[in-house]
Amino acid sequence: MNRMPRLHELTAKEVTESIRSGELTAREYISAIIERIREVEDRIDSFVTVMEDEALKRAGDIDYKVRKGDRLGRLCGVAVAVKDNICTKGIRTTCSSRMLENFIPPYNATVVEKLLSEDAIIIGKTNMDEFAMGSTTETSYFGPTKNPWDLTRVPGGSSGGSAASVSSGEATVALGSDTGGSIRCPASYCSIVGLKPTYGLVSRYGLIAYANSLEQIGPMARNTYDCALLLSVIGGYDPKDSTSAKVEPKDYTSSLNGPIDGLRIGVPEEFFGEGTDERVAREVWRAIHKLEDLGAVCEEVSLPSLEFALAAYYIIAMSEASSNLARFDGVRYGYRVEDDGSDWSTVYSKNRRFGFGPEVRRRIILGTYALSAGYYDQYYLKALRIRTLIRRDFEKSLREFDILAGPTMPIPPFKLGEKIHDPLELYMCDILTVPANLAGYPAISIPCGFIDGLPVGLQLIGGPFTEDLLLRAAYTFEGAKGLTSIRPPI
Ligand code: GLN
Prior knowledge:
There is one protein chain. The protein has about 500 residues and is of the alpha/beta class. It has 15 helices and 11 strands. The protein has helices spanning about 10-20, 25-45, 50-70, 110-115, 160-170, 185-190, 225-235, 280-295, 310-325, 345-355, 360-370, 375-400, 425-430, 435-440, 465-480; strands at about 45-50, 80-85, 120-125, 175-180, 195, 215-220, 265-270, 295-300, 405, 445-450, 455-460. The longest helix has 24 residues, at about 375-400. Bound molecules: glutamine.
């Protein structure tokens, strides 16, 4: 039976259209979002900070613009949740860490400026694994986020709060960051669309760094159109980010409807190795056959270097983390222990000992080890060499194919607490997402099915700056499969 969607269920496209036409006011819609947050947030815990008052005030400003007939931005009125490692001026940005529990940035990240200049409304800052280190949100200092599809299970991570908020209707779209899968993993586990852009497409200015040679900010949404819309807003060159690529901003919504006839899809056999759950493999193959029905041509391919991707990723990510997180010493800002008259080096160590959680400390220590004299060649340099091999393997297979397809996650969402005490087992979950970060290539996760009511995501990877192609394939698949209308039972 068809029913009218409730206001918090509207897509970003519908929200902007209804606000423009005067059918809906931004205040009505934002009030419905706030009501939805009140209804479910104590069970899901998507947010570190909910910005009720600011959001309502901005909604009022946008309604005023509508009444005056001013030009309205591409995201006018849309409630956006922002991961809490992206700086928001005057609003606490914690990285879900005790270290930054009270940190209030004096500036906005470029992506936040872009959202605001297109009249989006930031509804809150979302929970994440501490400093984005994890795949479940369980390492958050503020406690875990729950999966809206099954509250006893993890929502994925590290952008778990962003994914859960969008999936459950507490926000219409969200920003996440992806160093080794942190957008795609929770998108897959919460049955939404999440895209990690090509390295350099989206400015990282104002993103609190974990491993900067790997990470990108990216869009998360309940459908591909909204994901494309959000990417169109945040993409493009930024002189404030030295790794930003000199590319013109693009409207990714305009190419969604193109054909995928003859699209050549390579299916890496390594993505279906022994770690991949058979039920996941079955759902993903079904999705790949669906793409064939829609006109794509699929063929298996091998990328032998993928075997080493996980090891290389963790050495590089931890090494960069050990250097990036050196700045948090509690002196100018950040967590600071009570002054007991100790010397400065004791104070430094105590601030870091108590300001960081165990997973962050583990990674700083391992990263420092990998970079230290005598081990640098053995670990870090070797990992960089593997990274080059992986990029070459991708380059080679993407000469033969337009995109690569496989599962996003090797296993379905698991129980909270199930793996958190076994770091290696948790790291293994990232095996299919880290290759795209090592190569710097764009990758998207889209809902493709369910196993006993738990979401399964399909991952598509493309060559540099082929986001339009990935989004078009995703959009066509979504249209044929019709999964986005299925929402969690919460
Ligand atoms: N789970 C991976 C890690 O812990 C990826 C995290 C991320 O993408 N931020 O490093």
